[in-house]
Fold this sequence. Notes:
The complex is a heterodimer. By secondary structure, chain A is α+β, with helices and mostly antiparallel strands. Chain A folds into 4 domains: 3-86, Uridine Diphospho-n-acetylenolpyruvylglucosamine Reductase, domain 2; 93-210, Uridine Diphospho-n-acetylenolpyruvylglucosamine Reductase, domain 3 (2-Layer Sandwich); 214-322, 2-Layer Sandwich (Alpha-Beta Plaits); 328-403, Alpha-Beta Plaits (2-Layer Sandwich), CATH 3.30.70. Chain A has helices spanning 3-11, 20-24, 46-58, 111-118, 137-143, 150-153, 187-191, 225-237, 250-260, 280-296, 308-319, 321-324, 344-357, 386-403, 422-425, 428-441; strands at residues 16-17, 37-41, 63-66, 82-86, 93-97, 102-105, 123-124, 160-166, 172-176, 200-207, 209-210, 214-222, 244-249, 270-278, 301-304, 331-334, 337-338, 361-367, 372-373, 375-379. A 7-stranded antiparallel beta sheet of chain A has the order 15-12-14-13-18-20-16, with helices on both faces. In chain A, helix 1 packs antiparallel against helix 3 (46-58). Chain A is globular, with a radius of gyration of 22 Å. In chain B, strands 1-3-2-4-5 form a 5-stranded mixed beta sheet. A 4-stranded parallel beta sheet of chain B has the order 7-6-8-9, sandwiched between helices. Chain B is built from 21 helices and 9 strands. Chain B has helices spanning 11-15, 28-33, 40-51, 59-66, 73-77, 84-98, 105-112, 118-134, 183-186, 188-200, 216-220, 224-237, 249-255, 265-271, 275-284, 304-307, 314-322, 343-346, 348-365, 375-384, 394-402; strands at residues 164-165, 173-177, 203-206, 243-246, 272-274, 296-301, 325-329, 369-372, 390-392. Classes of the chains: A alpha+beta, B alpha/beta. At the A-B interface, helix 2, helix 9 and helix 12 of A face helix 3 and helix 4 of B.
Amino acid sequence: MSLVDDLVAALGADRVKAHPLELRVYDKDAGVARGPVAAVALPESTAEVVACVKAARTWGVPIVARGAGTGLAGGAVPTEPALIVALTRMNTIHEVDLENRTAWVGPGVINLDLSAHTTPMGFHYAPDPSSQSVCTIGGNVGTNAGGPHCLAEGTTVAHILAVEMVTVDGEIVELGGPAPDPIGLDLRAVVVGSEGTMGLVTRVLVKLTPNAPDVRTLLLAYPTIEGAAETVSQTIAAGIIPAALEIMDRPMVQAVENFVHAGYPTESAAVLLAEVTGHPAAVTAEAGQIERIALQAGTTEVRSAVDAAERDLLWLGRKSAFGAVAQSAPDYYLHDTVVPRTRLVETMTRLYEIADRFEISMLNVFHAGDGNLHPLVAFDGRDEGARERVMEAAEEMVRVSLEVGGSLSGEHGIGLEKRDLMADVFSPIDLDAQARLRDAFDPDGALNPGKILPHGSRCYDFGMQPPLSQEPAL
Amino acid sequence: MGWITGAAPTQAQLDACVTCGLCLPHCPTYRATGDEAASPRGRLTAMAAIADGIAEVDETFAEMMSFCLQCRACETACPSLVPFGRAMEGARAEIAAQLPGRRRSARRWLVGSAIANPTLVGAASFGAAVAQRIGVGRSGAGTIGKVRGLRRLPLRSSSTRGKSWPARGVPRGTVALLSGCVQDPWFAEVHEATISVLRAGGFDVVAPPTQACCGALAAHDGAVAQTRALAAANVAAFDGFEYVVTDAAGCGAHLKEYGHWAEGGDVLAARVVDVTELVAQLLDDGQLPEFGSRGQRVAVQDPCHLRHAQRITVAPRRVVAAAGFDVVDLDPSGRCCGAAGMYTITYPEMSESLGRAKADEIDRSGAAVVASANPGCEMQLRSYADEAVRIVHPIELYAAALQGRD
């Protein structure tokens, strides 16, 4: 008998993968790290997830939950040979409750499918990561995903009311409930963003948001990136909270335009996408105000999407940005940091300086409204030393963000990528507290081990943590 | 062992993928299975593993590649512009070379040679036409053996090959018609409609006698030598024409990639047009009349090799609307119907589930007529849609309107 035999007995042979080539396709997400995979299981029900957890525990194999594999921080990439539980087949929208504006959905439901399902009913699911056409609600819960429209609506944690979860012992628990403000400790909020280290989420109760009665999407072009950033700061300072404020720099705009052909101005230094939603009168007033601010900040082109098709095309461009860089190089490394809005320009200048110094090609696209930067470095991993140079520059870029008062991760999660930088942000006491919380859910460290918290996070075992059996090759 | 043939996926093709995953939801097999190994990104990862020498071309690899419908919906969705269809043809060529015994030789012969032989196709079509009349087959006259959704075949088929038809009025140019392999005997009415509309639009139409089957099925199956031979024959046969018109989307998509298959192929490729493209142009130029709405709805089904491979979506709708019908889109409009060349035979279950899903879309659209610009899709739709639904090529609707018929 073996782990694979047990899984096959529970799920059937077609939903268990063990051939090296099949494991290979599951050993990474959309980022750059790869990790070792022992087996892959594709359960279809909570009961099957329980069976997967029990089988893995019996054979002492760690468990890594996976959605669509669009993560960029290695959250679903194992650090030691693990059972990957891919939850993509649990993609049923179980129940939509329009009166209470909620829905129970499977973790494998694709973010955009949920909105497509509820939009005709007058509602949508608000968090919209760039990968929303692909990524799953379960994955969004794991990383506390954000997205352009989280500026006004808040990130995933603000939209999850309850989760059903299989614990490391194979028990089924429900955390949270239909009430927006649960009684007692808010364990639901602990699970959101825990990257599968607390349990495997098998059902999610999400909040549905009413569709805006009116939408206006503005494309603003600038001769300098400072002008775009200035518009963002002044807009927020004027008391407007647009639905989204997104900046792309020239290299990014060029890559994107080459794919979508939406008429993006490819000669401008920066493009700002601003979207306002709400009552038609308010939308008109706010759009007008943003336009005036933009003109003062030196915009050279103001374009308003004339219809839904043009708006969709502009957003398709923005949301395809990461993939589009492959036109310039086969690999990319994408950052995800947050800086105070007021220090956007200064941070950008320092990032460009780092890119120049390391001689790397950097493209920029970011959620300017909440200061969430995504500097993106395009490189060819086969060039001698390229990967190392990129990673070295990456670390400097993150440290710059921290220096100006920013944070490690805006929305991609900590995963593997930022794990060892956690100590730069948190004191040993903070880390110990987080490690203890995690231990309360998973005392043996069987769930996505080696993620989020750096080694030695626990004060009591400081220095006694065994090294990772296999460091992922970056 | 890695790749062993010159037809293998190139490093540039594989490097173009940054594994962002934006292709996944557009892939019918990923949608159905949720399995990364059945996704475009997974398939490219597997190809890269072969190229990097960390995996072998074995049965698992072959199965992963064969399960792909080659619908190329992933290409439309890909911001990195990965030429997935080309990479997949390369992978299939490697499988054919490295695992020669894997496929039944009968099938290889069928797609590589028999289908390209008009005499054999003609004989088989006659047999099928007889069978339809004496009621052989599983269910209904449209089914012969494993082939479903046929039109009623003529007992005496007359090939278009080697014939020509003069323009009505003053000729504005000459176009060549791709007769095709099965299009000629099985979809004769589509050719008739194409020819009559092009003549009305002022073109002399010629079907060169030495033309061959386009070779799309052979290319999809990894039969490299046959694909090259067919491409070379067509490059010679179609030399010098202003346009080469096809009324089968799968053929058009393949002809437009001849640059990869034959010397001078790019010259031919640049002159290939789908009949709906050319007719839409003639409508825009006022060379063909438009008919007012008669209040009848027609659902337009987008063949993958028109929508994704050739990026043509407006033209067929334009042609249907010009024929006086109200165009309805199917939702989702870009999903493969499951026909996919030989896929109905190689993966009947997946093909059937996609076929049934498409039939449900047609049902929801409420249209009594569906226009599809590809013969494979047409047969698949006819197999699964309600019997009352008429499946036609868009050009047939326009030709009928032009002749004052319904």
